[in-house]
Structures are given as structure tokens and as C-alpha cells.
């Protein structure tokens, strides 16, 4: 009986570690994060959920910076995410010609709030 209880506690703890904290409320975004939210809605939201799980046309970006790796296996860092925005990957088109460096910086700031 104790063994079963211990296994249950361990499993619950391990499962709890896989949850992602909720995103920062939109009303609490800084000006740069809000600019990133706007740029995200214009350029990314048609394919990626930001505040919900599951796939739209691409993977959800909820908690993207709270995980060590992207879905591709690449590190979840500014350099890799910027490169993916600029050059695309798989079915994602390159957006480097339509998204300014300032907008990319703001999108990264917004993604970090998710």
C-alpha cells in the first residue's frame, strides 16, 4: 500500500513538471511585449497558437521559451527562433523580408511572456 502511494506521488510530481506556467496576462505586457503581440497577430497567429495548446497549421508557441528545446530539437533561444522567423523551416515560410528586425525583437519579447 505504501509503495502504491509512493508511486502515485512520484508520477504526479513528474507529470506536474511537464506543465507550463500560464502566460503573462495581456493587460500586463510592457510596450515592447505589446508591440510583439501585435506583430505576432499580424504575422504568426494564422499558423501558431500563442495562448492555447495544440497545433493550428504549425505548433503552439505557448511556453516556447520555458522549454529547453523547440519541437525541431533545436535550442529554444533568441538566435534559433530569429533564424526560423527569417529563413523559415519545413512548411513555415521565411518571413525575413516582411518582418523588420525591430518587429522580430518585439515578437521574441512577446514569446518570452507565453
TrEMBL record:
Spell out where the chain crosses the membrane: none
Tell me the InterPro entries matching this sequence.
Cyt_c-like_dom, Cyt_c-like_dom_sf, Cyt_C_IC, Cytochrome_c550/c551-like
Q: Identify a single GO molecular function assigned to this protein.
A: electron transfer activity
Domain of life of the native organism: Bacteria
A Pfam family this chain is assigned to: Cytochrome_CBB3
The UniProt entry, under SUPFAM superfamilies, shows: Cytochrome c (SSF46626)
Give residue ranges for domain Cytochrome c.
Answer: 31-114
Q: For this UniProt record, give its keywords in alphabetical order, as a comma-separated list.
A: Electron transport, Heme, Iron, Metal-binding, Transport
Which named protein is this? Cytochrome C oxidase, cbb3-type, subunit III
Q: Which organism is it from?
A: Terriglobus roseus
Amino acid at each position: 500500500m505504501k509503495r502504491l502511494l509512493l508511486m502515485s506521488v512520484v508520477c504526479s510530481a513528474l507529470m506536474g513538471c511537464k506543465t507550463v506556467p500560464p502566460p503573462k496576462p495581456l493587460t500586463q505586457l510592457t510596450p515592447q511585449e505589446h508591440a510583439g503581440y501585435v506583430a505576432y497577430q499580424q504575422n504568426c497567429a494564422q499558423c501558431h497558437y500563442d495562448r492555447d495548446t495544440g497545433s493550428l497549421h504549425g505548433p503552439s508557441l505557448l511556453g516556447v521559451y520555458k522549454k529547453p528545446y523547440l519541437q525541431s530539437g533545436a535550442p529554444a533561444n533568441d538566435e534559433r527562433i530569429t533564424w526560423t522567423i527569417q529563413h523559415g523551416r519545413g512548411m513555415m515560410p521565411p518571413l525575413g523580408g516582411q518582418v523588420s528586425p525591430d518587429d522580430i525583437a518585439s515578437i521574441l519579447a512577446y514569446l518570452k511572456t507565453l
